[in-house]
């Protein structure tokens, strides 16, 4: 089973039971601002999305499809904090992460992102990763930097059909 562990977290496959808490997380202002195409209208829509994302997993991690989205769960009490994953972009593979507002500022995102980064390099043999952050979201920029990503450039990209400024970060396993 595809599970990544850190001292405080489990990054694990999504389950149908995650749909309801993810639906609530995706209604928070920070989710709406960061990933507006993932604001669902109903728990049923959230469940359909969870089932689609889960269908991308294969038995062998090397054969997983993208996007690959994992639940971000606190080990001590099983609380679902958000999710983290990998998605294709023109340059290669982007890391993504989202943590519920009640859990932000506690280092969960950078801990999850570092573990996902290391797993991606060692298991999937993907040696170069990218991260995108809105210029007006310094917390997301700090998460990427704490996880070992370096600022590459700021540029305009299409985001959900709208030209948007992004800070682009990269991580190269070859340079470490």
Structural descriptors:
176 residues, alpha+beta, 5 helices, 8 strands, 28% helix, globular
Task: Characterise this structure.
β4 and β5 (92-99) form a beta hairpin. With 176 residues, the protein is an alpha+beta fold. It has helices at residues 19-25, 29-34, 43-55, 108-122, 138-146; strands at residues 4-5, 9-13, 68-74, 80-89, 92-99, 128-133, 150-159, 162-172.
Explain the layout of strands and helices.
Layout: E1 4-5, E2 9-13, H1 19-25, H2 29-34, H3 43-55, E3 68-74, E4 80-89, E5 92-99, H4 108-122, E6 128-133, H5 138-146, E7 150-159, E8 162-172
Parallel strand pairs: 5-6
Antiparallel strand pairs: 1-2, 2-3, 3-4, 4-5, 6-8, 7-8
Helix pairs in contact: 1-3, 4-5
Shape designation: globular
- Low-confidence parts, pLDDT < 50 over ≥5 residues? none
Give the oligomer, counting copies of the same chain as homo and different chains as hetero. Answer: single chain
**Strand-residue proportion:** 25-35%
- Terminus-to-terminus distance: 28 Å
Major sheet attributes: 8 strands, mixed
Instruction: Name the structural class.
Output: alpha+beta
In a few lines, what is going on in this structure?
The protein is 28% helix and 34% strand. It is an alpha+beta fold and 176 residues long. The protein is globular, with a radius of gyration of 15 Å.
């Amino acid at each position: 089973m595809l599970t990544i562990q850190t001292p405080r977290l489990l990054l694990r496959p999504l389950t149908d039971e995650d749909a309801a808490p993810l639906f609530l997380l995706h209604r928070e202002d920070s989710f709406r601002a960061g990933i507006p195409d993932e604001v669902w209208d109903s728990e049923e829509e959230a469940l359909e999305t969870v089932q689609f994302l889960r269908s991308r997993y294969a038995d062998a991690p090397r054969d997983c499809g993208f996007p690959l989205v994992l639940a971000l769960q606190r080990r001590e009490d099983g609380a679902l904090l958000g999710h983290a994953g990998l998605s294709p972009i023109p340059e290669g593979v982007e890391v993504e992460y989202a943590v519920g507002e009640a859990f932000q500022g506690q280092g969960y995102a950078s801990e999850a992102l570092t573990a996902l980064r290391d797993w991606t390099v060692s298991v999937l043999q993907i040696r170069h990763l990218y991260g995108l952050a809105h210029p007006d979201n310094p917390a997301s920029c700090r998460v990427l930097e704490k996880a070992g990503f370096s600022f590459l450039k700021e540029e305009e990209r299409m985001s959900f059909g709208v030209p948007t400024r992004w800070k682009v970060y990269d991580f190269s396993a070859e340079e470490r």
